[in-house]
Amino acid sequence: MTPTRGPAMTDVARLAGVSHQTVSRVINGHPNVTEATRTKVDQAISELGYRPNTAARALVTGRSSTIGIVGTGNALYGPVSTLYSVESAARQAGYSVVVGVPTSFDESAIITCVRRLQKQGVDGVIVIAPLRTEAGDIADLAGELPLVAVEGSPAGDLAVVSVDQIAGARAATAHLLGLGHSAVWHVAGPLGWYEAADRVTGWRLAHEEARIEPPPTLAGDWSARSGFAAGSELAENNDVTAIFAGNDAMALGVLRALEVQGKRVPQDVSVIGFDDIPDAEFFSPPLTTIRQEFSEVGVRSVDILLKQIETGNRSTRRSSIEPRLIVRSSTGPHVSRTS
Question: Environment class of residue 90 by beta-carbon count within 10 Å: exposed (0-12), middle (13-18) or buried (19+)?
């Protein structure tokens, strides 16, 4: 039995009442097509269920309509949300995505991963790079193909899109100081991560602006378990009335440790996190936190990359996205304790 042939470009042209060359121009985004003609062709494509031959299109345009993404390979909320947001924005722009995961997150492994994607014919690459690198060689690579780094190094001559982690941590700390707490203790993420280091910087700045000496930081690893360990230590210190956890998972561990030690939140200790994960409002109590707009990260990253692809011009644009303070029940005014 002969298989049924799917709709061809000539079928689209016949239904739309235009030439197949015009259909090709519409599919390839050619600017010299009127809006009325573009609408007729799009309607015919939709009605027939026509799917362009991407291999043939690549031969004509020199593009694959595919974006490469270098991911971290871990399941942490931030990197996973960033990857999803970039993939979603690329799909909305009509691009498919190929994801590569480096064997480690040093610069040579990242470059190897980018090279592998380049050999697969991607039009450009977005590198999700939350860990510290020198960024020099990656910046050199940006001269060879369109490239954008997300949460990448502030150094290096390449385009970077990032959430303003310093501003977010500053807002979190200022919120607690504004509630009358004399100081804010910080459970920091691993300092090999840009976000963790920047959140420490923002926390320090808020104390400096309030002319308060910040207490020592406690080290965490993004996990609830490390938050629990830090929270258990802090719960033994009656001077601790406010804690800023470097992410919501560590904040969850802190909340549990305080509960175990008989501390009430926020009556005895206020707790704030960072990320605003989907479950944050269901913590006990609901968690005050800093929301990162990951969807905006994806849109801006893809937008900057596609402009490079379309124009052939390298970009060194730095795009910073403001996070938002989300106030819930885990933070409250400092109440002086009487002996």
Answer: buried
- 220, 186 Cβ separation under 8 angstroms: no
Q: For residue range 187-224, what is the model confidence (pLDDT) as tens digits? A: 999 988 889 999 999 999 999 999 999 999 999 999 99
Selection from 89, 79, 86, 108 nearest residue 277 by Cα: 79
- Residue 213 DSSP symbol: P
How far apart, in Å, are the Cα atoms of 201 and each of 152, 208, 253, 266? 16, 10, 23, 25
pTM for the whole structure: 0.79
180: Cβ contacts below 8 Å, ≥ 6 apart: 333, 334
The DSSP letter of residue 104 is: S
Query: In 3D, which of 324, 232, 240, 229 has the Cα closest to residue 274?
Result: 324
What is the number of helices (H) and of strands (E) in the chain?
12, 12
CA distance linking residue 91 with residue 86, whole number of Å: 9
Copy the structure tokens of residue 336. Answer: 């002086």
Structure tokens at 6: 């799917």
- Strand pairing partners for 321? 163
69: closest CA among 39, 89, 46? Answer: 89
Strand partners, 99: 69
